[in-house]
Amino acid sequence: MPKIVDHENQKERIAEVVWNIIHKEGLEQCTVRKIAKEAGISAGSMRHYFPNQAKLFIYSMQLVVNRVKTRIDQLTFTETPEENAKQLLLQLLPIDAERKLEMEAWFSFTAKSISDPELKQLRKEMNEGIFSACQMAVEALCPSQNEMERKRETEHLYALLDGLALHAILKPDRVTHEMIDSVLTNHLQTLSDQK
């Protein structure tokens, strides 16, 4: 009897292999042959899931977006506005091993998206989602600020998240989960104090 394969699960597993190769060796080492070998399948089988490398990269980048959305959808906002905002924004930061892999892949795909229109669209979608999360946090914490002040604070928070994410990837010994939590908590408290 033939083995039944969950195709979506297999595609996710292959995408996770891509993330691991990026982590260990960089995006330029993500060849179809290497990915297939690491995934334990033949290159021909891999082409069954992804007809070319571009489709695989698009799927791998989309998987990052989907996982972030899933984490956010599973949140229950029952705490203080500051804590709720922090829990929302932490979903976008590399605070554990899985999110670090996602973030490393995301930054690699973001660099590649400069010359790849299909990846560029996914980058735009994710960036708009991050900006929207920052906007929601600022509006919840600073409802009495005027529109210009809220726009400025949203850009400030967005830049803070990008900086924390990048530094956590580049300097993980310095920008730890505890440091991210502390910096974010402090900034959100400062925003809340501006009510």
UniProtKB/TrEMBL annotation:
Presence of keyword Transcription: yes
Entry keywords, A to Z: DNA-binding, Repressor, Transcription, Transcription regulation
Organism, scientific name: Bacillus changyiensis
Protein name as catalogued: TetR/AcrR family transcriptional regulator
Transmembrane intervals: none
HTH tetR-type domain boundaries: 8-68
Keyword DNA-binding in record: yes
DNA-binding region: 31-50
Superkingdom of the organism of origin: Bacteria
InterPro entries: BetI_C, DNA-bd_HTH_TetR-type_CS, Homeodomain-like_sf, HTH-type_Tx_Regulator, HTH_TetR, Tet_transcr_reg_TetR-rel_C_sf
Gene3D superfamilies attached to this UniProt entry: Tetracycline Repressor, domain 2 (1.10.357.10)
Pfam families referenced in this protein's UniProt entry, alphabetically: TetR_C_6, TetR_N
